Amino acid sequence: MATLRIVRNSEPNNRFSKYKIIADGNKIGEIANGATEQFDLPEGTHTIRATINWCSSQDIQVVLREDKAQTLYLSRFKMGRYLTYIVWGILALHLLASSVFKFPYLIYLMILPFFLMLYYFTIGRKNYLQISDQFNI
Q: Dmax of the chain from CA atoms?
């Protein structure tokens, strides 16, 4: 058997949710926030995908060999780890500007993050998670 190692990024969103790992259409396990899991699979080419609820990653092809463990890195979409902080920052600025300066219009800056999340929950739901063999997420 060959070893597939998956490293999941630690992130504030989905902190308490486990991502399901699917190899060749079959669930092989789950991975928690900030965890590293190893899965034993037969040697050869496999299609790997990660899912959470109705969102998932793109399929990635990996070639597993018995003499070397293959490592994949898993995270949310590129800006996903910063989106929560951006939303809270905009909300804090809005509350400050509306109460101190009587300028209630900063709340409209929430439109862009809202549509970004709407995209990833609907049309881009197969790009919600990023899985890669390089640590670039």
A: 66
